[in-house]
């Protein structure tokens, strides 16, 4: 990561937010909407409501800011391979949540168990664990509150209008977002590479 960034910092963060928001929108469509784990009240495009993509972009921006400002400096700089693996693990967890959403407790147990194993190999496990728990609690609370609008609903909500496994999905997403934030913040000299 010695190359000088080409884009201004704000543009890079916006690009990350757009990219992550697009990935989340695609995962939502393929792994939650298609198998019926969740449904939108007024779908306008491929089973999703018009506001899904902008909502995921905004959520991605908020997650990035939280990761960058509060936790990224505490995590050693991950390599590109480790970052890509974290993103792939999150997408895999997303896929599993759609396939096995009917077994919510087993799925949550599996997600948490794998997350704990991943934490065991993480040099900055305290920071990663704290970010993961905050992200899981905040994400589930926000999604639960959004269901109160009547715009979407999960097929099998169990706690505050969301399924239990959703917390586990956020736990796995925390690795990916934290690693991406650490790499971007380092590239722009906002955090030292050490």
Class by helix and strand content? Answer: mainly alpha
State the distance separating the first and last CA atoms: 12 Å
Main sheet attributes: strand count, strand direction, barrel closure: 2 strands, antiparallel
What form results from the Cα inertia axes? globular
Strand order of the largest sheet: 1-2
Taken in chain order, the helices and strands follow as: HEHHHHEH
Low-confidence stretches: none
| Oligomerization state | single chain
Count of extended strands: 2
Q: Approximately how much helix is present in the residues?
A: 55-70%
| Alpha carbon gyration radius | 17 Å
Number of domains: 1
Structural account:
The protein contains six helices and two strands. The protein is mainly alpha-helical. It has one domain.
Topology:
Blueprint: H1 9-33, E1 38-40, H2 52-71, H3 80-99, H4 104-120, H5 125-147, E2 152-154, H6 165-187
Helix pairs in contact: 1-2, 1-3, 2-5, 2-6, 3-6, 4-6, 5-6
């Amino acid at each position: 990561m010695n190359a000088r960034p080409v884009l201004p910092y704000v543009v890079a963060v916006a690009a990350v937010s757009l990219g992550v928001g697009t990935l989340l929108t695609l995962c939502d469509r393929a792994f939650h909407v298609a198998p019926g784990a969740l449904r939108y009240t007024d779908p306008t495009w491929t089973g999703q409501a018009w506001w899904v993509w902008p909502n995921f972009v905004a959520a991605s921006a908020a997650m990035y800011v939280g990761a960058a400002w509060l936790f990224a400096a505490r995590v050693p700089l991950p390599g590109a391979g480790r970052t890509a693996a974290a993103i792939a693990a999150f997408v895999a967890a997303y896929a599993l949540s759609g396939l096995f959403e009917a077994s919510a407790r087993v799925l949550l147990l599996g997600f948490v168990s794998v997350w704990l194993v991943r934490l065991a190999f993480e040099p900055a496990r305290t920071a990663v664990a704290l970010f993961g728990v905050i992200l899981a609690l905040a994400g589930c609370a926000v999604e639960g509150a959004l269901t109160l609008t009547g715009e979407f609903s999960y097929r099998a909500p169990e706690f505050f209008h969301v399924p239990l496994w959703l917390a586990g999905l956020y736990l796995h997403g925390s690795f990916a977002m934290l690693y991406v934030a650490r790499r971007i913040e380092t590239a722009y000299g906002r955090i030292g590479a050490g």
